[in-house]
Amino acid sequence: MGLPWSPARGGLALHIRVTPRGGRDALEGVEQLADGRVVLKLRVRAPPDKGAANAAVLALVADRLGLGKAAVSLAHGAAGRNKTLLLHGDPAMLAAILRDIMAAMPSSSKA
């Protein structure tokens, strides 16, 4: 299985799948979707209403990666569950942080 991120101008593009109203804010692991894309699964308590879930996603990712809120932005997928975030910063440093986080997560699953 591949990685849920790819190089992007100014940092990394992080591909995610979000479960809004998920009962808690958490990163849950890596999943390969039926179309072959690899995503980082996460859930947020916020509902998908007026951007609340998107704001919660950005805050969660920034917090878990130890980044400032301005270092994480939504690049694609504002209205859907599958999104792409842009992580601003040194790509090698960001990839190392993501690898450490992934190493501590449950095993990957397939959709």
Account of the protein in words:
- The mean pLDDT is about 95.
- It is built from two helices and seven strands, in the order E-E-E-E-H-E-E-H-E.
- The two termini are about 10 Å apart.
- Helices cover about 25% and strands about 35% of the residues.
- Strand 1 and strand 2 form a beta hairpin.
- By secondary structure, it is α/β, with parallel strands linked by helices.
- Strands 1, 2, 3, 4, 5, 6 and 7 form a seven-stranded mixed beta sheet that branches.
Rg from Cα: 13 Å
Determine the structural class based on helices, strands and strand pairing.
alpha/beta
The SSE order reads EEEEHEEHE
Report, as a whole number of angstroms, the end-to-end distance.
12 Å
Q: What is the 3D form? A: globular
Helix content: 10-25%
Task: Provide a compact summary of the structure.
The chain has helices at residues 52-65, 91-103, and strands at 5-8, 11-19, 26-32, 38-43, 72-76, 82-88, 109-110. The protein has 111 residues and is an alpha/beta fold.
